[in-house]
Each structure stands twice: as C-alpha cells, then as structure tokens.
UniProtKB/TrEMBL annotation:
CDD domains: Ferritin_like. One of its GO terms (molecular function) is oxidoreductase activity. InterPro entries: Ferritin-like_SF, RNR-like. This is Ferritin-like domain-containing protein. Transmembrane segments: none annotated. It comes from Pseudoxanthomonas spadix (strain BD-a59).
Length: 276
C-alpha cells in the first residue's frame, strides 16, 4: 500500500489541528507542559525502528504484519509529528531535532529483537501493556491541562492508543491458542513489562527533554531527579489507575471474583512502577 493511500486511512490528520489558536504567551513558561509533551514527541517519533523489529518478528503473519506497517506505525509517527509541531509552535527556540538526535542515539540501543518476548503471544501481551501505558498517559495529560489544542491532540492520540490496544489484544487471543499459553506465561510477561516501563523509552525521553530544556539558562540547572519527582507528582493527581488495572488484567482473562482479588495488588504495583 502506497504512503498516500495509507494517509487517507488515518482517522485524523495533522491539518485537522488548529495550532494557530494556541495561546503561546500563556504556555511558554510552563516547564511541566513542555517536558511532558516534548518527551512524548520523542518516543512517538522513534516508532519506526521498533515497528520494523515487530514486523520482522511477525514475518509470515500477513494480517499482523500489514496492520503494524500500514496502520500502527503510520499512526504512531503522526502522533510524533503532532506533538513535535506543538512543541515547535509554543517553543520555537527549542532545538527539537538536536535533542531528538541525542534521545534516539540512546533509545535505538533498546530497539533490538533481543528485547522482545520469547514467543509472539507473550510479545502481544507486552504490547498491550505498552498501549495501556500510552493510553493512560495521554488521558492524564488531557485531564491536567486546559489548553484546548493540547487537549484536542492528546484525546485524538489517546483514542488511537485504545484502538491499538484492542488490535494487539485480538492478535494475542489468537496466539494464546496457537502457543497454548498458560496464565503463568501471561503473568510473567506482565510482570517483566510493568517492571521495565520506567527504565525504558519514557525515562530516556524525559532525561533528554530536561537536558535540552535547561541548556543555556542562567544559573545551575535543576537536578534530573528533582524534575522527575515533580513530573510524577503532577501526573499522579490525574492518572486513571482504574483504567490501568482493567487494561493490565484483561490478558489474564480472570473471572470476576479473581479479578476483584487481583485489582488491589496490581494497582499498587502499577502506581509504584508508573508514577514513582
């Protein structure tokens, strides 16, 4: 499928967003907004490398491969362009390309097939957790800030991420049967992926956003640990933990009683690893 055909399949386009209506004077001094949006723009813009690895991993599965290349990757890259455009519109002096270059040089080292799960079904569980993280991240940002254009962008992206989760979950159900995956396989994957979330791309992106945001400012730049704590404290106020738990537990296919029993420890774990 050609790129122009793929573009027409998108649920929304960059041209749908009215960046000119942003009150830039009000937003420019908001370091918190900058760091959350800029770091997200880095991660989304790096999707092509990871998508290539996933497509290779699913070689022979035409349905999954075509969806990854023609929908998931295209939509993730559009997310990156929308967020980058927002950053460049509000903070035109910020050297996004150089900052992204530093981020990508570190991030690309994580994007190897060795980092994928041992089976396709387990990798699809891991993908569900990643989509859970992005869905809830954008929903939190949407609830935190009242700037209309940012809310428009984050809700569009959040909606895309929910649909991505549903696709990965659908493919997981198929591979669960093919690979005869047991619940303990799924639990092991959930545990690994949840524990890795704060050590992966999001943390790398935030570090580079912080480094470049405060570069050249007068006085000593704030310590990254201080900034990281402030951002997490800001996020925790609006983070939809109920949604985190529902999306994290769904691949386990628990009955209602078991799910109620598991919700509290899963919520506690999720809060620690996502918001610490």
């Amino acid at each position: 499928m050609h790129s122009d055909q793929r573009a027409t399949d998108l649920r929304w386009h960059l041209e749908d967003i009215d960046f000119s209506s942003i009150d830039t004077a009000r937003m420019r001094m908001r370091d918190d907004i900058f760091l959350l949006v800029c770091s997200a723009s880095f991660v989304e813009s790096g999707a092509e490398t990871y998508a290539h690895n996933l497509a290779d991993y699913f070689t022979g599965d035409t349905e999954v491969g075509e969806w990854l290349n023609e929908h998931w990757k295209v939509e993730e890259l559009q997310h990156g362009r929308a967020l980058k455009t927002y950053v460049q519109h509000v903070w035109p002096e910020f050297d996004w390309d150089s900052a992204y270059g530093d981020f990508f040089a570190e991030y690309v080292k994580l994007c190897t097939c060795d980092e994928l799960e041992p089976t396709r079904g387990q990798e699809l569980v891991a993908r569900c957790i990643v989509e859970m993280g992005t869905t809830t991240y954008y929903q939190a940002i949407n609830a935190m800030f009242d700037e209309p254009v940012l809310r428009d962008i984050t809700w569009r992206i959040r909606t895309d991420e929910v649909l991505h989760y549903k696709h990965f979950y659908k493919y997981f159900l198929r591979y669960r049967q093919q690979e005869n995956l047991r619940r303990w396989h799924v639990i092991a994957t959930l545990w690994r992926r949840m524990a890795e979330l704060r050590k992966s791309d999001a943390d790398i992106a935030l570090r580079h956003a912080v480094a470049w945001r405060f570069r050249g400012r007068g006085g000593e730049a704030p310590a990254y640990a201080v900034i990281h704590k402030q951002v997490c404290e800001l996020m925790i106020k609006q983070y939809p933990m109920d949604m985190v738990v529902r999306m994290a537990l769904k691949p386990l296919q628990l009955n209602a009683r078991l799910q109620r029993w598991a919700e509290r420890p899963i919520a506690s774990l999720a809060r620690r690893v996502l918001l610490r």
